């Protein structure tokens, strides 16, 4: 039995290559993330869940949900959670692990062309996935379209530490340490080379905030987590806007 050729995305973010890359890393994805983030992924997940503030009876979209770790955290509230991801491998792994949770379902979906009705969700969230979309601004408009007026968006994404000394330390870790660790724990270490490239090329906190406003979100704010390695962005679908809200 031959080992499949590692699938590595690049900054062109071709959807088929991105999806194929995540298909390959799906089985060990959560464990690898915990190791590479030095356990911070759990803290980031808790912060995101608290920002979404899910409640029973609400309908929540967790986009780029991967294997559903973030979705499970949301579903514990009793809300109905849709875990959506572009990668069929991730969706399959999520169903295998969490398919018995009654208020959690898995759907394969393209972030720029969501298979949901206008104003369908009380809240939408996306953790570490917007950076991998080939047109992130279109994804933000789609998320606005499917959110009810007054509904919430929470985006948790890698960002840029504002303190210069810490930013240098972070670049050293990503450039020198992370690739070595990825080779030891990941089934596709080349995928984590792409991770570094995508983080370096991703815009800063203020730019992403501007994108959210352009996509029709109001009351946009962010706070840094882990000294700005990650930023948690929030916004509201304005009550006065039409449900399509892609303005």
Taking pLDDT < 50 over at least 5 consecutive residues as the criterion, the unreliable ranges are: 241-247
Report strand %.
15-25%
* CATH C-level category: Alpha Beta
CATH superfamily: Vaccinia Virus protein VP39
Count the helices. How many? 9
| Content-based structural category | alpha/beta
Nearest-integer average pLDDT = 86
CATH architecture: 3-Layer(aba) Sandwich
Which value, in Å, is the CA radius of gyration? Answer: 17 Å
The total of beta strands comes to 7
Describe this structure in words.
Strands 3-2-1-4-5-7-6 form a 7-stranded mixed β-sheet, sandwiched between helices. It has 9 helices and 7 strands. It has helices spanning 15-25, 29-36, 40-52, 69-75, 88-98, 136-145, 164-185, 189-201, 205-214, and strands spanning 59-63, 80-85, 104-108, 121-127, 147-158, 217-225, 230-237. By secondary structure, it is an alpha/beta fold. It is 43% helix and 21% strand. The model is unreliable at 241-247 (pLDDT under 50). α2 packs antiparallel against α7 (164-185) and α7 (164-185) packs antiparallel against α8. The protein has one domain (15-237): Vaccinia Virus protein VP39 (Rossmann fold).
Please give a quick description of this structure:
The chain is α/β, with parallel strands linked by helices. It has helices at residues 15-25, 29-36, 40-52, 69-75, 88-98, 136-145, 164-185, 189-201, 205-214; strands spanning 59-63, 80-85, 104-108, 121-127, 147-158, 217-225, 230-237.
